[in-house]
Request: fold
Amino acid sequence: MKHVIRITAAALLAGSFALQGCALQSSSADVYTARQAQREQTVRLGTIESVRAVKIQADNGQPSGLGALGGGALGAIAASSIGGGRGALLTGIAGGLGGVVAGNAIEGGVAKRNGLEITVRLDNGDIRAITQEATPEIFRAGERVRLVSGSGVTRVTH
Reply:
């Protein structure tokens, strides 16, 4: 029983680290890192050509494996309590495999955020496309906007 509690605690801890990592990464126009604050940035003006809804994958499409690991451990623990002897082993294996699939899917869903691809025609005629996390700020074709650039990051704002 002690090993079950340890495995459960480790899985929950690993899952919380995975979720924390997702929560700390932001591609919102409203979020600045400490390094980006109080730095001079370039501002260019332009008009929105188009706006398209996209999904932003926080983990660059590569799951960390923590969701699968945690799901597998929890699934195996939960399923192994069903039956006894050899039945518990088989249900534990099946529960672990199901947990791996479910944990991986949950991790993938948590890592995706709603975003916008905003195409802007600058006043000098150049066209730029910037993808950023969706916020309550609404962008529409024909609106005047600012492109704020610095430290390799460009944001679209009103």
